[in-house]
Structure formats: structure tokens, C-alpha cells
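Exam revision sheet. Question 4 asks you to relate a sequence to its structure. Input first:
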Amino acid sequence: MNMDRSTLKGSSLTYPLYSASEVQKHEGEAAISVGLSLWDLMQRAGNAAYLALRSRWPLATNILVLCGRGNNGGDGFVLGRLALSEELQVTLCQVGHSEQSAGDAAKAKAAFMAAGGEVTGWQPELLAKADVIVDAMLGTGAKGPLRSPFDEVIACINNAGVPVLAIDIPSGMNADTGWVESYAVHATATICFVGRKLGLFTGSAADHVGELQFNDLGIGAAFDGLVESCVGLVRRQTFNPLIAPRSKVSHKGDYGRVSLVGGDQSYAGALVLAARAALRAGAGLIATITHPGHQAVMLAQQPELMCLESAESDELVENRLNWADVVVVGPGLGRRSWGLQHLQATLQQPQPLVVDADALNLLAAMPDIPYRNNWVLTPHPGEAARLLGCDIEEVEQDRYAAVRALQKKLGGVVVLKGPGTLIYDGQQLAVATVGNPGMASGGMGDILCGIIAALIAQGLTISDAAALAVCIHGDAADMATIMGERGTCATDLLPHIRTLVNP
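Answer key, C-alpha cells:
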């Protein structure tokens, strides 16, 4: 079996993601290489934003443009001038210190005023007549707590009930992390330029970005050639060659053996969910190692399972672990002595491991957490915080830094769950934006670790298996919520998993 963890190559990442500083540093050079100036880029950005506005809200006639003093505000001035040229009603408010506009932003402001536009100061009453608000206040370089008057303005925008188009980034959101310190604009749509910013795709961004559009302003290829990114979006379809149709002469032994360890007293359901997901994701043979008294309920739920009841780790447990190509530990494991004993037995195994739930919590409590290259760890932010010895807010403030710290500390592949799940193998960092709030229910993590194990058992590297499993998991949840997100159960994903592993 291929245990290489470093095969999540750039070709698996559909779009590269960049930090705000990378874009700011290299966009000028990219523009010059194709014969453009930064002023030309501002014109293109303002025009792209205006076309996005007209496409999204074709009947809007009253446009409120809120500009800051920097280049983000300059884009807003260009948009305002174009709206004036088509005889729309434009109210342009410069928020903050209007006299401090400089460079191209000041030039764009002058062009707007020369076209007949007027610039006013902030007044909450301006929101009442707006059909659409354009957020061009704080660009991608803004970080830290909001200063007055931006905090007041953003609070008013969010309470106005008026659609919002954010230019490049919703004001108040960190462009590199997606973290919101205090307030951030809840945009209906966001248009991003030149390079897709890291913060638009994970964490709090899901509540603020809205419909995301991208325009490279005609310099995308030149920019990508200047900046090598090891972070990118990942999509299930890019992995389809790895799950090609099966040979007509194949048998169950060709598709791997998975052992799952967990299900302490009262927690059999979690292990059943993981085992059922592994079956639906295509593993050939599935065995469970669980607390005494669970065999009957497990086999009633899924008779294809081989179920071993274990009061304590012994030779039978060791044999069942040795039998497997990959071992899952954690679903329903609990934090009592039974769970710890079975985790310790599992950690002695040389084959790939998938570690989830209470197995992560037990690891975090160990004085010396082991490091290994052939495991997949799947923490949610709370488990990640315990493993790192910090609080949950620190994890969420910079999910990219957290997943890198976890992988550096523990090895293998780390899957940091949550909106914009992050998958990091020490070289490439994949971001999966699939899934929805209907997944906020018990058992979803058990389903994910079962899918990961099944894909490893079928021969995928642990990096590819983790990334593809996250995509299948999220896509299945999106399919399962066609009737609505509220009330979605983990078992609702199972038939869709089977569909998705047969592209």
C-alpha cells in the first residue's frame, strides 16, 4: 500500500489562493509585464465591479457607494463614475478622512467629481433610499479592530436589509484568515480581483462573503507566473481518475480491509456510522472492535460488518488490527480507561490510521503525543485547540496557521474541519468549500473518517484520500439537503456517498 503523504500536488488544486501581501507586492509587476499601469488596473477593477452590480441587480437605480481613502475606495470611485455615465442615481459617501486620499485613489476621486459626482460624509439616513450598497471602504490590507466610524457604518449596513456588493473583501474581515475582529459587512456578493484571497474561503468568511465572483483583470496568468502558491481550492472532480471503474474480475480483497475501533458504552452509533460510510465509499471488508454488548445492534444495522466485542485489549484485538490495511480509531471511543486502552493498542500498529473524536482528546491529554507520517487527524476547532494547548478562538483567528501548527507537531495529514475545511500534508494546503450548515448535527465527523479510511484501503495516498473524502462528504451533504438544511441527519449522506464514488 502506498503510504506516501506528500502526493497532494498542485494539479489537484483547482485554483491557487494568495495572501493580501502577495497580491499587493506582485500585481504591479504583473500589470507592467502585460503593458498596464496600476491606474489601468483600478479602471478595470471599477469596471468589473460595475458590470457585476448591473448583472446581479439589473433593476437597481439608486446606488450608495461607500469609499475609504485607499485603492479599494478608488475602485469605488471608478464604479460611481460609470454608474453616473449611465444616468443612475449615485450617492457616494467617503467614510473616514476623505482628505487623505492619495495616488490613484485621489485621481479616481477627481475623475468622479469631474463627471458631476458629489462626495458626502457618512449619514445613516443615506441607507433608506439605496437599492444596492457598494462596500469599497476597507481593502485587503486592513487588519485588527475597526476604528470609528467604520464600526458604526458597518453595523448600520448590516441592519439595513439592503443588498451589498463588496469590492475585493467585505470590510472588517481579515483577507488572509477570514477572521472578523468585531464587525464585518455581510455582503450579498463579493467580487475579488487578481488573486483569490485566502480569507475568502474559510472560517467566518462563510457568513460575510455571499456569492463570490472573481476577475483577474487580464493579468491572472502573469501574476500566477510570479507567485507560487502552495494553497488552493480543491474539488472532487479533479480526483476522478483515482476512482476509475473497477475491473470486471475484481473481488472484495482488492478493495481493502478496514478496522474501526470505538463505541464505548452508549456510543455504538458513532462506530456504526463510520463503518457504514466506509462500506458506501467502497471498502471491501469492514470490521469493528467495540465494547461488549454492541454486536447485536451493529449487525442489525449493518449485517455486512464483522464485529468483535472487546472488554480489554487482548490477542484477539491485536489480530483484528493486524488484519486491516487501515485502522480508524475514535468514533464513540469515549475518554474512559476502555477507550484509552484501545487507543494505545491502535497506536502500536504500523499501518495508516484515521484518528477522530475522542481519540484526539485522549491524544491531547498524553504527556508525549506521538508523531507519525502515516495518519490522518480530523479535529474540529475544539479538538484542535486541545491538541495545540490554546483556546478555540485562537484556532479560529487563523485556521491556516492552526492546521500548519498541528501538522508540524503531529505529522501526517491534518483535516481541520469547519466552514472551508483545511487539509494539510506538510507541503500542499487544500481548502474545500463544499458543505452547508445542515452538517451541524451529530455523526457527520464519523461519516467523514469512514470515507477517508475506505479510500486509503482502496489504494489512495493518505493525502489524496483525505482531500477527496472531504469533498465527497461535503458534496453528499449538499445533495442531502435539497429538501432543506434543518433536520439533516448523518445517515442521509450515505446513499449520496455511493453515487459520488462512482463518477
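Marking note for examiners. The chain has two domains: 18-228, 236-244+253-500.
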